[in-house]
Amino acid sequence: MKALSGWLDSVTRWWRSDAPPADAATPADQAGAALRQLLHDPTVPESVRRELGDEFARIQALLDKLARGELHLAVFGRVSVGKSALGNALLGEPAFETGVLHGTTTRATQQQWTEAGGSGLHLIDTPGINELDGEARERLAFEVAEISDLVLFVVDGDMTQVERDALTTLARTERPLLLVLNKADRYDDAERERLLTRLREHAAGLLPADNVLACAAQPAPLRVIEVDADGNERERRETRAPDVAALRERLLAICAREGKTLSALNAGLFAGRLSDQVAQRVAEARRDVADKVIRYYCLAKGVAVALNPVPVADLLAAAALDAALVMHLGKVYGMPLTRREAGQLILTICAQLAALMGAIWGVHLVASALKVASIGVSTLLTAGAQGALAWYATQVVGRAAERYLVAGKSWGESGPKRAVQDIVAQLDRDSILREAREEILARLRSSPAR
């Protein structure tokens, strides 16, 4: 994970500074290594791999894409701005479906831009971000943008609030963006320049000004009036060729200069997001196991303390269970502890608990004495109270040890005193004692020994 973070930072700094790295192939090689490391990481539990199965499958797809030297370009925008027509114009063939119906594109489709040569640049057409049933289609469009190396954000006039919000969101994905004014043939020269100026204002801080361009993917037919020899007029419509030369030139220049690094950056950003997801899932899984482990030891310690009739001896048994708990938690969090380390950790926690729990342990000792002197109901009641206090103390020890282990065997800047104080403040002592007492009494009543 550290290797991934380091090379990703360096590549991101290069891209933002617009200065190429000394070795243009290095980012792609490092991206591949980072993806393979994540794909084969032995510390990722199988349950997490199954839960994130689609994401792990995408890792292999990205590795194959890097090996083939492909770049993916997503054409993104509001419904009916001409995204599919623009893709066709760039490709030079009608590969994407177009039509007059509202929202012709209903799913992402991909075509290879053969002009780019080799494996080349692949265009991905996406559904409009404001179509009916828009939430699902918008989510799809964003997902496609996230796995693309470049994004063409297409508009056909001044931007709406929905478009401005979407552009801002896309900018946060750290993908290179081009803002394209399509259907520019509808405007005269002065109107077109005013629109481009306005679009550059919207895009300020999100993408370079020279990445805001105008084009006409499917210009309206030219109306031509012809007059025959007899003076009769006849109107015909003359189809005009797409005007995408400036956009094509800009795209090919970006691909030639930055292609390998953009592909590596995209792969790295995806790997970084997946690493965060994996870390979150692993942490959640470990927390679930830790909760069960702590509860198990709370119950074991509570019942053991309640059943032991010998004063002080139950406290020794409790200490042994605390040590076992801490060592068990160390294994759960991948931070194994020796017996000595576990003992030192418990001493540290208990030293901080001394002032907070002094009164509780005083009651604990009194209850131990009462158990020897009493029989019957009083023994059951005092045993339940004493066991509940032991349960609560184990909760504090377990949570404190958990925080220490999650931080990599460290108490952080605040130290153990603040950590224990925070845990005691966060725990609902009354509800824990009530639950513990009820659980312990139920166990004691069902015990054959009683």
Question: Overview of this structure, please?
Answer:
The model is unreliable at 1-8, 10-25, 96-108, 114-118 and 368-377 (pLDDT under 50). The chain has 2 domains: 2-216 and 246-278, P-loop containing nucleotide triphosphate hydrolases (Rossmann fold, 3-Layer(aba) Sandwich); 308-446, no CATH class. It contains 14 helices and 8 strands. It has 450 residues and is an alpha/beta fold. 62% of the residues lie in helices and 10% in strands. The longest helix is centred in the middle third of the chain and has 63 residues, at 245-307. It has a 6-stranded mixed β-sheet, sandwiched between helices. A two-stranded antiparallel sheet has the order 7-8. 35% of the residues are buried.
Spatial sequence of strands, sheet with the most strands: 2-3-1-4-5-6
**What's the CATH class label of the largest domain?**
Alpha Beta
| Oligomeric state of the chains present here | single chain
Instruction: Name the CATH architecture of the largest domain.
Output: 3-Layer(aba) Sandwich
**Number of DSSP strand runs:** 8
Helix amount: 55-70%
Largest sheet: 6 strands, mixed
In CATH, the topology of the largest domain is named Rossmann fold
- Overall outline: elongated
Termini separation comes to 55 Å
Jot down its keywords:
single chain, 450 residues, alpha/beta, Rossmann fold, six-stranded mixed beta sheet, two-stranded antiparallel sheet, 8 strands, 62% helix, elongated
Describe the structure in brief:
The chain contains 14 helices and eight strands. The protein has 450 residues and is α/β, with parallel strands linked by helices.
